[in-house]
Design a protein that fits this description.
The chain is mainly α. The chain has helices at residues 26-38, 62-65, 79-90, 97-113, 115-127; strands at 4-5, 10-11. The protein has a two-stranded antiparallel sheet.
């Protein structure tokens, strides 16, 4: 009852899990490749970069890296923090330009909503 046939040392059928995943074989790889070809998800070699239309091909590169212009919209107390955020966004190639702007606007909305807390912090900073 330990899952192994005691006489022969052979595992019983209950020894193996019921949901064993089948091993990959050449046939399943060919089926996957055929499905990818039918969905037009396979790259054709040699790769021609001009054939690939990216999501942001119409967005200029400057919209991705020159985000410091939004820093003037923020309260002066938050400038050091926002410089760090904007620097991280400028260096992130995985986000779209719209997503980067959305993140900046969410911080701006947050700081505008909590402006009374920022004024208190500014007074404490000036005392020091």
């Amino acid at each position: 009852s330990s899952g192994i046939n005691a006489e022969y040392g052979i595992p019983d059928s209950s020894y193996f899990s019921e949901d064993v995943t089948p091993t990959k074989c050449q046939y399943t790889n060919e089926l996957q490749a055929r499905d990818l070809k039918s969905e037009d998800k396979l790259l054709k070699f040699p790769i021609n970069n001009e054939d690939v239309v990216w999501e942001e091909s119409h967005i200029p590169f400057t919209d991705h890296i020159f985000l410091n212009k939004y820093l003037v919209l923020f309260p002066p107390v938050t400038h050091r923090f926002m410089e760090t955020v904007i620097s991280a966004l400028q260096n992130n190639p995985d986000l779209t330009a719209d997503k980067k702007k959305q993140i900046i606007w969410s911080y701006l909305n947050y700081f505008n909503y909590h402006s009374e807390l920022l004024e208190e912090d500014e007074e404490e900073i000036l005392k020091i």
